[in-house]
Specification:
The chain is mainly α. It folds into two domains: 7-87; 89-193. It is 67% helix and 0% strand. The chain has seven helices and no strands. The protein starts with 11 loop residues before the first helix and ends with a helix.
Length: 193
């Protein structure tokens, strides 16, 4: 029995996600005070919205796409951070807060490995809101740290929320079964965008 070849149109969301990796790397070559940086920044944000939307519209959601999307987001955030952190003064309390969020997210991944037997990057509403707010507030860090502190609060809630629902999954079962209507639980174990 031969495998059916995927329709090329269904590859478009993953291609957009891969292009976000390249665009994020280009941010490392740009001055954060320059126009090129912010144009690429905007294109990365647009690609983040478009890949998931197109995956759903083209019925091309996949585990690979979900993981690529999450890793591309991390890469984009890291490249922005590398460029912007060197140009602003960040208070130590915000570094500590960011570290706490990272630790919570790492614990969530260990929990996902135990419960779901795989890494889990659920695209919850709280995680999407965190991403949107982070994207919108990064340009404001040159004037005020307050918007980023607000995003840190939302990100903390999102990380705890994510861990709570990962912990509610049961190994060996599809995560969505015991929580009807919780689409993000299905996303966790099935890996959809």
């Amino acid at each position: 029995m031969t495998k059916k070849k995927p329709c090329r149109v269904k590859l478009i969301p993953n291609i957009i996600t891969i292009l976000r990796f390249l665009a994020a790397a280009c941010l490392l070559l740009c001055n954060p005070a320059g126009v090129a940086f912010w144009v690429i920044y905007g294109l990365c944000g647009l690609s983040d919205m478009m890949d998931g939307y197109l995956a759903r519209k083209l019925n091309a959601e996949s585990k690979t796409g979900a993981v690529l999307d999450s890793v591309a987001d991390i890469c984009f955030i890291a490249c922005c951070a590398i460029q912007i952190i060197s140009t602003i003064q960040i208070p130590s309390w915000l570094w500590i807060w960011a570290g706490v969020i990272v630790v919570i997210k790492l614990v969530n991944q260990v929990l996902a490995l135990i419960v779901c037997k795989r890494f889990c990057f659920p695209h919850t509403t709280a995680n999407k809101l965190t991403g949107l707010l982070l994207f919108l507030t990064v340009p404001t860090v040159f004037w005020s740290i307050v918007p980023i502190a607000i995003v840190a609060g939302v990100a903390t809630f999102a990380a705890i929320h994510e861990g709570h629902f990962i912990s509610r999954c049961r190994s060996g079962r599809r995560c969505g079964r015991e929580h009807p209507g919780r689409r993000f639980l299905r996303l966790c174990c099935q890996g959809r965008r």
